[in-house]
Amino acid sequence: MRKTAAVSFEGNSVKIVNASLKGDTLSVDKTLVISDDEFEFYLQKEKSSEFIVTCEFPNAYHDVLTVPAIKPKYLGKIIESEVRRASGMKDVSFIYASLGERVFEHRNVLDIFCYAVNSEDIRKVVDRFHLAGKVVSALYPPVFAAASLIDAGIPGEANMGVLGTGRDRTIFFTKNRAIYFIRNYESIDEEFGDFDIQNINMTINYCFQNLRQNPSAVVQMGSLTRSCAISTLPTAPLVSFCMPRNIRCGMEEFNECMLPIASFFTGRASNILSKDFRNIYLARNFMSHAVKVFMIITLVCLGFLFYEGRDIYAKKDAIAETRQGMADIRQISAEYLKREGKVRQFKPVVDFLNRPAPDIRELLVGLGEMNNRNFTLDRLEARAGEDNVFMVTITGAGLGNTYSSLQEMLRSLADELDSTAGVQVTDKVMNLKDRTFRVVMEYKGSE
User: Fold this and answer.
1) Is the pTM of this model over 0.70?
2) Which of 136, 270, 309, 392 has the fewest CB atoms within 10 Å distance of its CB?
3) Which letter, b or e, does each residue of 418-432 get, where b requires 16 or more Cβ atoms within 10 Å of its Cβ?
4) How far is CA 256 from CA 225, 251, 262, 406, in A?
5) Torsion of CA 159, 182, 222, 51, to 10 degrees
6) In sequence order, which residues have a C-beta less than 8 Å from that of residue 255 and are 6 or more positions away?
7) Can you spell out the DSSP letters for 426-447?
8) How far is C-alpha 372 from the chain's CA centre?
9) Which of 221, 38, 224, 18 is nearest to 128 (CA)?
10) Rg value, the chain, Cα
11) pLDDT tens sequence across 177-186
């Protein structure tokens, strides 16, 4: 039986559950509700070293993205690119779920529900635990934790859940165990009332118009099940979520701490921790188990040496050094995060140096292919301008014997340059005295 601690940040409150999970049965040992200001003091006293965390991110991006139907190993990169473009976030952590494949404009595409958070917001949450020497093994958005309970406990292909923290509300629509839509709004009262029914009906209408699906039930969850002050009902059946049979605790405790309890059953695919934090967690776990295995082997060897009459005191020193290695791991982890922060300071400069620029070679090739029997090119100058544009100046001499032929040559050259992809002539000058000319143009490169 594995004992674990789960923490849920809900407004100005922090809800904590210590529980034991055996198979699919969760036995709640203790629940605690404290203010956010008391949380650091709690961490200093708490003996648990690993935590499952549920936290709401107000600036999160969530939407359904349509991407090409490609192999799964390439899908993550495509989604990351689309999320960066759509959300405007550069350093982003995200989770996603496939909603199915369809045909759009004669090609196969995938609909993907994506939930993305700025990595800096995740780092702020994890740092609170890290500074106390604790590890966050998983970080879940509340809506994904709640959806995992609805999928397991409410029958029907599609359902709608309603969560509440104070006056803040979250409505989400699930279908076939996948989240399709999330909507946040602020209610006029902490108690569930008619204003919430209006918002639920609006969301049901939106889902029918866009998803062609009505929920089989609207599920009140957590603190919203305590009391209602409604004079009307939503267009779908309204039910209060009941505690599943595989969770052993009081009903009051369950409703109060529904989210941290739900996080025990949330799938790994909903863990929004960035890869860096996951790698640190895996490395720490690996080293912890490796140390335990090494200690067992050491003890066996010490027993063998005892019966052989060997000196065992030197081996005791080795065990002490191994224990000291755990402290070194924490120090290395802290140093890693510190240096990572320094690297991020230079990332904007690197991105600037790596920004795309048009390929000037295409212009040179185009100039070489021009009909230059009426002129000679003497010089080409190019300098980088703003918005990935080259300012190009070419100078040369006309071969005509009359003024009109020189003017016609310059006009023909400017027209031919203007018709070249990515080129816009901004100035052209002919010096009739010495038959030299100058053409100035902007070059943006071919699309």
Assistant:
1) no
2) 309
3) eebebbebeebebee
4) 10, 9, 12, 88
5) 120
6) 222, 223, 225, 226
7) EEEEEETTTTEEEEEEEE----
8) 55
9) 38
10) 33
11) 889 999 999 9
How crowded is the C-beta side of 66, counted as CA atoms within 13 Å?
A: 8
Distances (CA, A) of 210 to 135, 188, 203, 214, 284: 41, 27, 10, 10, 45
390 contacts 384 by C-beta, under 8 angstroms = yes
Distance (Å, rounded) from C-alpha 134 to C-alpha 47?
A: 9
Can you tell me which residue has the tokens 């009109």? 404
Residue 123 has pLDDT above 60, yes or no: yes
> d(Cα 89, Cα 59) in Å, to the nearest integer?
10
- What's at 187, amino acid-wise? S
Mean pLDDT taken over the chain: 83
Residue length of the chain: 447
Using one digit for the tens of pLDDT, what is the confidence trace for 127-165? 999 899 888 989 999 999 999 888 766 666 788 999 988
Percent of the chain at pLDDT above 90?
29
Q: How far is CA 117 from CA 57, 114, 135, 287, 397, in A?
A: 7, 10, 20, 29, 60
Cα–Cα distance between 104 and 37 in angstroms, integer?
A: 51
The Cα–Cα gap between 108 and 356 comes to 30
What is the spatial distance between Cα 79 and Cα 73, in angstroms, rounded to a whole number? 11
pLDDT tens digits for 259-278?
A: 999 999 998 889 998 766 65
What is the amino acid identity at position 393? T
Q: Which of 298, 293, 290 is nearest to 319 (CA)?
A: 298
- pLDDT reported for residue 383: 82
Query: What is the signed CA dihedral for 211, 214, 220, 224, rounded to 10 degrees?
Result: 70
Kindly report the backbone phi and psi dihedral angles of residue 60, in degrees, each rounded to the nearest multiple of 5, phi listed first: -70, 150
Cβ atoms of 216 and 236 within 8 Å: the answer is yes
